[in-house]
């Protein structure tokens, strides 16, 4: 049983810290959206204070809009399409004006009025300026953030207190605090303080772990970081249940009393190291599997084929990799080499300015995982193999021959 008198729930959320988290399920739902006859606008803005000052977001939006108009020529489309385009552009402009000064470090807005789409993500981390207008939302920056910033639960403990902190999208939030845990033993056992202290620490750590498990269950987490003063941390470490131990990313030798920002800084160091390690591991797994001709594809064309066959379990792709390609509007075939006609169904293929983005969305739709490579080591390792690859769900086996 959890006794609430021992725990103070404090969310400590200052107004300027109100951010929108990106959830995987959200991205999967967004990846399914299409709009055949009206454009969908995807706007990303870098709101880093220096950037904001150098060039106001609204000005940058207007410049990007002008570029999009020159490239995509809405004036050559139907009158309805043009009307939708103008309505969308005006809606975004008015919204940006109304929201000044824009909060956060980054902004992502996905808008398609004709299909009832309006999503704005206020992000605590910067994103690169970008405006995409297409028949679907452009999701790669959001998918990249989701991959880069996994959720961390941090548990810091000392002899009498503990703090439980969530680190998401590069920001820290205190979820719970445990203090004044009173050891149950009193009176004539005082001379056995050494022993009593052990028991007390043991119970305190046990209680803190129960709280951590509860939060992990309720809020979900990718990785755990534990820390604190030596003796208490030892108790915590010893008692970690296997499910949490498996997700342990690192330890901090920090008192729970230190500033939240200081804790965040240290956790982000662990997170960066963890992400680099995972990237390197996944690239290695991918290349090894491909060499053994086991459930893996390397290079754009082979990877696209695996996506069309809905076999991708994990897509590994370099962050900046983009290339034009061809998509079949009827059966979903994807190709990287120029073809007029779909080899699967004979329809006329549609050119896509960035087939890698289409690939990424398909994998999201198919509930596959995505690893976006950002570290230079991992990018170099995969560069020689075509900058993209996939681990597959199952091997293709020829159907049994009928006899
Ligand atoms: Zn086709």
List the helices and strands and how they pair.
Layout: E1 7-8, H1 24-31, E2 40-46, H2 49-54, H3 57-72, H4 79-99, E3 106-112, E4 117-123, E5 130-134, H5 140-148, E6 152-157, E7 162-168, E8 171-178, H6 193-219, E9 223-228, H7 230-239, H8 242-245, E10 248-252, H9 260-291, E11 296-298, H10 300-308, E12 312-318, E13 325-327, E14 334-335, E15 350-352, H11 355-365, E16 369-373, H12 376-383, E17 388-392
Parallel strand pairs: 6-9, 9-10, 12-16
Antiparallel strand pairs: 1-8, 2-3, 2-5, 3-4, 6-7, 7-8, 11-17, 12-17, 13-14, 13-15
Helix pairs in contact: 1-11, 3-4, 6-7, 9-12, 10-11
Supply the key terms.
60s Ribosomal Protein L30, Chain: A; Translation, Eukaryotic Peptide Chain Release Factor Subunit 1, Chain A; binds zinc ion; 40% helix; 3 domains; Nucleotidyltransferase, domain 5; single chain; alpha+beta; six-stranded mixed sheet; 22% strand; four-stranded antiparallel sheet; 403 residues
Radius of gyration: 26 Å
Q: In CATH terms, what is the architecture of the largest domain?
A: 2-Layer Sandwich
What share of the residues does DSSP label as strand, in percent? 15-25%
| Tally of discrete structural domains | 3
Low-confidence stretches: 1-16, 187-193
The total of helices stands at: 12
Identify the CATH homologous superfamily of the largest domain. Answer: Ribosomal protein L30/S12
Bound ligand species: zinc ion
Instruction: Give the rounded overall mean pLDDT.
Output: 87
**How much helical structure, as a percent, in the residues?**
25-40%
Under CATH, the topology of the largest domain can be stated as 60s Ribosomal Protein L30, Chain: A
Order of helices and strands: EHEHHHEEEHEEEHEHHEHEHEEEEHEHE
Shape: globular
- Strand neighbour order, sheet with most strands: 1-8-7-6-9-10
The first-to-last residue Cα distance is 64 Å
């Amino acid at each position: 049983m959890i006794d609430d008198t021992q725990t103070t729930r404090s969310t400590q959320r200052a107004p300027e810290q109100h951010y929108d988290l990106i959830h995987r399920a959200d991205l999967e739902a967004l990846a399914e959206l299409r709009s055949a006859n009206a454009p969908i606008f995807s706007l990303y803005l870098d709101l880093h204070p220096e950037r904001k000052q150098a060039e106001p977001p609204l000005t940058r939006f207007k410049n990007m809009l002008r570029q999009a108009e020159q490239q995509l020529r809405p004036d050559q489309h139907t009158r309805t399409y043009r009307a939708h385009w103008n309505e969308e552009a005006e809606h975004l402009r008015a919204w940006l004006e109304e929201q000044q000064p824009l909060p956060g470090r980054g902004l992502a807005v996905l808008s398609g009025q004709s299909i009832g789409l309006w999503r704005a993500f206020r992000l605590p981390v910067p994103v690169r300026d970008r405006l995409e207008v297409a028949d679907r939302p452009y999701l790669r920056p959001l998918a990249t953030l989701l991959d880069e910033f996994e959720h961390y639960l941090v548990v810091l403990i000392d002899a009498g207190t503990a703090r439980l902190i969530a680190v998401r999208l590069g920001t820290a939030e205190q979820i719970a605090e445990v203090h004044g845990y009173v050891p149950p033993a009193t009176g004539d056992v005082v001379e056995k303080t050494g022993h009593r202290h052990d028991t007390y620490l043991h119970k305190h750590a046990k209680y803190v772990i129960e709280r951590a498990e509860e939060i992990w269950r309720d809020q979900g987490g990718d990785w755990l970081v534990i820390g604190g003063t030596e003796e208490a941390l030892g108790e915590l470490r010893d008692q970690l249940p296997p499910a949490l131990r498996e997700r342990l990313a690192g330890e901090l030798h920090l008192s729970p009393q230190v500033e939240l920002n200081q804790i965040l800084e240290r956790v982000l160091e662990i997170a960066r190291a963890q992400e680099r390690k995972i990237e390197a591991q996944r690239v290695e797994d991918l290349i090894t599997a491909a060499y053994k001709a086991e459930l893996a594809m390397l290079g754009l064309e082979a990877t696209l084929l695996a996506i069309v066959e809905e076999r991708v379990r994990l897509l590994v792709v370099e962050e900046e990799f983009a290339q034009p390609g061809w998509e079949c509007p009827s059966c979903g075939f994807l190709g990287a080499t120029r073809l007029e006609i779909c080899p699967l169904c004979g329809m006329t293929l549609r050119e896509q300015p960035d087939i890698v983005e289409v690939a990424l969305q398909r994998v999201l739709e198919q509930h596959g995982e995505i690893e976006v490579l950002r570290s230079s080591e991992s990018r170099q390792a995969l560069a020689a193999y075509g900058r993209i690859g996939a681990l597959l769900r199952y091997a293709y086996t020829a159907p049994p021959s009928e006899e």
